[in-house]
Amino acid sequence: MTIKKSLSAALAALALTGGLPAISHADVDDDLDELRGTSAYNEWQLVKNDTRRNIRAWTKHEDGKGVRSFKLDYIVDAPFLTVARVYLDIENYTRWFWTVREARILKKVSPTEFYYYVQHDAPVTLPDRDAVIHVNVEPYNPKKGYGALRLKAAPQFIPPKPPLVRMDAEDMVVKFSPIDKDKVRVEVEGFIDPGGLAPAWAINAVQRQAPYFTVLGLQRMVLLPQYKDGKGPLPFNLIPEE
Question: Which N-terminal stretch is annotated as signal sequence (predicted)?
């Protein structure tokens, strides 16, 4: 069996067991480039261009990193306040964030700073992961035209929970730019290092696909009445109260 067929079969097996979404031939070619060391470094590569859903995704190999960085640019057809309600409802990440099985607030430092805990199901044969994320909220500013969440892993914030593997990085910036009263542009750029031992091609396959499927989850969540018709203040100050 050729290397390409072997890798394709391995990725397909992970997809069938729920560890990965469906894998395309292009994905396999990208992972072969990873193994051969022939793919471009320090340049964003477009890996998803869903014009129907207004989602674009890129990945990038960076010097000194075995795992790709990722970038997303997408449109959500919902008011900014609705999108903010979904994003700041940490406990309900289990309903839409990729492979999240538990999420909860650990500490509210201020209206613009908090820590939360999250557990992720890992691909088959690999131990599940958990992470502590430190979030700084940059409130929406009309002059700048956006608000943002700045996330950085804080693995030492609480003790490890074996057999879970504590993630070394789940770092990203999520930028929200209202286009009009019923439409928001969201830009995400980040890097995830699951820690522990895992083959780079498996990590990168998940990292390339997971952000896209998470966006699909968000686009479903903004349609729910609890967010669309939600009342009361936000738990954190992403949108300043008038």
Answer: 1-26
- How far apart CA 208 and CA 126 sit, in angstroms, is 18
178 three-class SS: strand
Which of 8-12, 109-113, 200-204 bottoms out in mean pLDDT, i.e. has the lowest?
8-12
| Residue 171 forms part of a structural domain | yes
Q: Tally the C-alpha atoms within 13 A of residue 6's C-alpha that lie toward its C-beta.
A: 6
E-state strands within 41-199: 45-50, 55-60, 69-76, 100-110, 113-120, 129-141, 146-153, 165-166, 169-180, 183-193
Provide the CATH number for the domain around residue 75.
3.30.530.20
> Is residue 200 a part of any domain in this protein?
yes
Burial status of residue 196 (CB atoms within 10 A of its CB: 0-12, 13-18, 19 or more): middle
Q: Is 198 helix (H, G, I), strand (E, B) or coil?
A: coil
Is there a domain that residue 33 lies in?
A: no
Amino acid identity at 72 = L
Residue range of the domain that includes 212: 39-228
Does 46 map to a domain?
yes
At residue 237, the pLDDT reads 96
Instruction: Report the domain count for the chain.
Output: 1
Q: pTM for the complete prediction?
A: 0.83
